[in-house]
Amino acid sequence: MSASHTVLYRKLRPKNFSDVLGQEHIVKTLINQLKSNRLAHAYLFCGTRGCGKTSAAKLLSRAVNCENPREGEPCNACPVCLEILRDASLNVSEINAADYTGVDSVRGIIEESAYPPSSGNFRVYIIDEAHMLSASAFNALLKTLEEPPGYVIFILATTDPQKIPATIHSRCQRFDFKRISGAVMFDAVRGYAAAEGIKIEDEALRFIISASDGAMRDCLSILEQCASFYFGEEISLEKTLELLGASDISVFFALAEAVLKADMGECMSLIDGQACLGRDISGFARQALSHFRNLLAAKVQQNGNISVSASGETIALLREQAARLPMSLIIRGIEAFSELLGNLRYAASERVMLEAACVALCRPEAAGPARAGGAPQAGEEQAEQIGELKAQLEELRKAVRALSEERGKPAEKAAGPPEKKKAADKRKLRPPGSAELKKIAEGWAGFTGSFSDGSKELPIKELLGKSRAAPDGGRLLIIVEDGVETLVRARASAYSAVILPLMAEKFGVSPETEIEYVGASEYKTRFDEPAKPRERTAEEIARNAEGLLGIKVELKD
Length: 557
Ligand SMILES: [Zn+2]
Prior knowledge:
Blueprint: H1 7-11, H2 24-36, E1 42-46, H3 53-65, H4 79-85, E2 92-96, H5 103-112, E3 123-128, H6 135-146, E4 152-158, H7 166-169, E5 173-176, H8 182-196, H9 202-212, H10 216-229, H11 237-244, H12 249-260, H13 264-276, H14 281-300, H15 312-324, H16 327-344, H17 350-362, H18 378-407, H19 418-428, H20 434-442, H21 444-449, H22 458-463, E6 467-472, E7 475-481, H23 486-492, H24 495-507, E8 513-518, H25 520-528, H26 538-549
Parallel strand pairs: 1-4, 1-5, 2-3, 3-4, 7-8
Antiparallel strand pairs: 6-7
The chain binds zinc ion (ZN).
């Protein structure tokens, strides 16, 4: 968020503990400590960004120094309070460790803390983003934390407490700030908006809150941005979406509906419509993710409270849609859009990636390796390795046979001790139909070259432009050089509908197939410069066989 839009946030920083939002557990403890004069000398405030850590630290710095505190609360009217409120007090220092990571800034604090405060009771040091301090800075700080002067209070604020060294951690009193809930934020921000004379629709406010994900600073920044852009007008949901480049929630209901019906065309039209409106693609993916997440909440929290920040009307719609969507589809949606969000930053075309993810979500069974349903499983990787090994083994068998034929000896002679021979024989049994598969593999180039540019076959032609086929167990493995565009891939994910009948027509069989995408260089090494088994020496083949089959191979002249 730009600095010009933090005015409202600074203005609305809580002046009293009773104004702190959603952190009742912390406020109560601090008030008790203030009233009973049992303050700690070092605090560690932990929590996500924008949840009020720095605001609470500033409040505490006034409360400990105020000349007329009431029930632990600062008066905000005495000279000391006013000085701190103006950021003009010499006794309250706020440093951002992200800007001053070095040991020098900490040394400055330590030297200064040797002198008692000039006014008020305490010197308060607020260190924001404390986890960013360097190791030497932490070491310097540690000495002071071990034996702090009675008039010094350190408040370390961090979003990442795990990066605070244990030695520092153990000397601080830790408070964990909670993310501010949507409902609490809604009431508070609606109050702020009214007090500031900003007119905003409830739906628009709800959208801003969900976009800011529990961070009050972000929420107020967006509100302020809307208020200055639409100065004097009522801020509607439409205007908010327009300004933020976000999409209306109805689009995501429609998207989930299209996915449920496996209507790929509808998915593409929805994306097209949003792209025409100039909506931001990664924002769209984030909103889609949030919609599927809300559907999940609606599905599992059927009665009572639901952890979704939305109007009653929207929640009813969510419940209705969630009831019709299978749980597996909701989970797949969440996985697909989270994965997409992770990949978008590397994407050449964000829109194509989004389209491919949506289409794959409609047709998970046909999406192949490019499908959006999460990272490849360990099982898939193993299957791939086994496939490779099988291919190597097949190549090896051919080579051994060829070599034996050349030498005029039966292949079995080279297969070592008789007790292992049986096992080797067993492996040689081929699954039925392998002759046909072999025929398809041999005739593959002629087959792919025969496609017309007709609309039905065009994606297949594009996809299979550079491909080979090989028998793989009882299936046909189609190996494609992976230069094809994601969209072609996604379209071809429905290839079986088109390619199988064509294959049946040409070869008279319709085998189970799988497409494997391999990188251009790998494809080249596999097919353009094939290792020629016949040229291998008998020694090489024997050693390879030993490694692969775990058998001893003896060579006889
Ligand atoms: Zn005061």
